[in-house]
């Protein structure tokens, strides 16, 4: 009797599985037919995946950076992916980049508002009221001509941080973070305004920021419920900024204000901690990993490291101060930095289509997201021969003194809301690299780690450790 009912149970399970399988197959066929029938006029070719709404989210999510290029080979330079309800159209032909950055039919603010709301709890109303003012304030404070006033403290902070590093074995990322985070925060927010002076409190700050940064991209997409640790760190950082903004005086002459003071004079009091957190993220999240990659790539190539060392020694030697003017005599170092930025640029930059947007002979409908990929643009052999190689010399033909980059280079975005921190980023990176080479003989203890293909927003992160041995010169 028992065997009979068990067999009947098995048949039931089997039948249910078959029926569910058939229903799912029918749904998928139905879904594909709906899409084929209701196609989107002369819109770009679309990859919908097999499932309604979800689209190709699962395939895409496995290694999004590589998926973008695989689909370009299959579908051409303009195509749309359906990913979790969002139509994402990729423009991968450099001829179309100017349209992406300049067309009034696509919008920066409408692309980033929701992610900003999710990661930093800034309301829609506050974002649209204050975003342009914030952008212009940061741009003004960090314009190329304004950086001389920031330079002495930046140099002092980096030099003091590096002087603490003695002969030994280290993780490269820890060395870079350990010195740069604290100095950049003191520089842009005011010395000790964030808890940078007390070692224990600072370590706590760094731990929460690293967590916030690591899962930033997921925080922009998923409800906090799925990201417990990330939400805890975000809460900690917002609480810390809540206390900081109470203490910051926003009066006085504009020229003498820190970037934080200027920011706080233009935003609403309610969201002051939230915008401060965003400023902190923007100022650390891309530049500091780029310093890591620059050092890793330079140290990995004997020829490059020798050339860089020769340049530093012939300009400042082992003991002179690295003055701002000295940096102009070290162009090879700047080439190394730009080459690292080229190879580790953001996977995507986004805009929201607000009016039908024509590209080639196609129209991208309003509501879609459009994206360009600096990461892949910088691997185009037409502009960057031998694109996968770290070749700083390719930058010698760019007019770097006038800050003109190579054609096809879009690491800092473009148009009205291009990265306002780019000149500060290049200055801090140039200075740090010069000080590091001046002080240390540093050797990699293994291969340069690969990058994680999981993240599309911002500079790629290394997947594994990068141990180094440091000797003082
Ligand atoms: C190598 C380092 C950096 C890279 C590759 C980088 C790249 C970018 C990119 C691609 C954007 C979006 C632009 C667009 O969509 O057109 C952006 C925005 C931004 N960046 Fe940077 N950035 C770097 C360093 C910095 C630094 C050091 C700061 C500040 C000190 C900064 C502040 C900002 C801000 C505030 C925005 C948002 C602008 C807005 O919302 O209007 N960035 N950055």
TrEMBL record:
GO terms for molecular function: heme binding; iron ion binding; oxidoreductase activity, acting on paired donors, with incorporation or reduction of molecular oxygen; steroid hydroxylase activity. One of its GO terms (biological process) is cholesterol homeostasis. The keyword Metal-binding applies. The chain crosses the membrane at residues 12-31, 278-299. Heme binds at residue 419. Pfam families: p450. SUPFAM superfamilies: Cytochrome P450 (SSF48264). Keywords: Heme, Iron, Lipid metabolism, Membrane, Metal-binding, Steroid metabolism, Transmembrane, Transmembrane helix. Its cofactor is heme. Belongs to the cytochrome P450 family. This is 24-hydroxycholesterol 7-alpha-hydroxylase.
